[in-house]
Amino acid sequence: MDVFAEMESEVRSYSRTWPVVFDRARGSLLYDEDGRGYLDFFTGAGALNYGHNPPVLKRALMDYLARDGVAHSLDMFTVARRHFLQALRDHVLAPRDLDYRVVFPGPGGANAVEAALKLARRVTGRTTVVSFTNSFHGMTLGALAVSGNAAKRAAAGVPLGHSVSLPYDGYDGHEGGSARFLDHLFGDPGSGLDLPAAVIVETVQGEGGVRAAGESWLRDLAATCRRHGVLLIVDDVQMGCGRTGPFFSFEDAGIVPDMVCLSKSIGGYGLPLALTLIRPDLDVWQPGEHNGTFRGVGPAFVTGAAALRAYWSDDALEKAVRRAGERLFLALGALADTRLGSGLAVRGRGLAGGLDFRALGGRAADTAARVSKEAFRRGLLVETSGADGSVVKLLPPLTVTDDELDDGMDILARAVDASLPS
User: Fold this and answer.
1) How does strand 163-166 pair with strand 129-132?
2) Is this model's pTM higher than 0.85 or not?
3) pLDDT at 341 exceeding the cut of 80
């Protein structure tokens, strides 16, 4: 591995957690160059919801490349772009009676967030954006300004302003209150809070400790924004595309955001693609006012469209994710309940699960990191999450089989037992 140490920056992180060289992958398994397989409950931080190299997507991609399909097009019209937009309309938006315009802001989730923030400020003429404790929205400056992680914010190197952070649902043990508190702040001329352009929220904070907001809290938040003319942005970069069951993570709450940020699995195959979905009346951009080089990656359009057709033409995948999620949380609950005195807590929703070690106090982060290391040694990839890294996070593929899920949870249980302080 000398070439990596010699040439790559010290900023790399995942390769330190899993110090092997991976070579190939299929379904729920990653294989290193020596042929050892690892169950992947990391899935590219949520970019591989349908697993590695799903045959139906691989076939579409290979066919497209074999006929010399357009690889790069910025925002020029292409057949691949047309097919993607048609699939998004026919299989996602129209069945949910959602009316959004599509912005292709660039290749990644931070691009989708930056576009939403910029547009919200342009539309409203206001500058402040409200975000929440333990949030994470990306590593660019605008996205960092609405993120809660202190270490990541500090790396910006400049002051991060025009944002206000308020308590997320369940923060410090308080549930439900902050959405109603926000309503009071917006309406009180003595609150000291200028009416913001937008509120940005994750329905499940994947990087913030796999914290899931309650449906009533999300409904209160949406109602507050609507009452005060504040735009609601849902960051569905990691929790969208079926991670919690339905295509959008906000569907079960029955809310309709003004803007939605999508990336990661929207390309289906792990290829770079991002969308910012906006209400049609918010589409006040002038031509070229927001642009970028990689807004038209043809192969990602192809695999993204194939994924929408293959997995979202009916509700079979949604039902499968809900069933698998129940299985996952039963196993996590049993794991926590049978480790008496450990104080383990279970977090998340759908196929986004978390095992929280914070009850261990100062040993929490080290214990979670050791669980990840022990799981890797036994053939399972899981990462840690939360501002202090005290939560073990599980993102199995949405296509995971029952046997794979059970095997992964068995490995996790053994890793926990090997890691808990005696």
Assistant:
1) parallel
2) yes
3) no
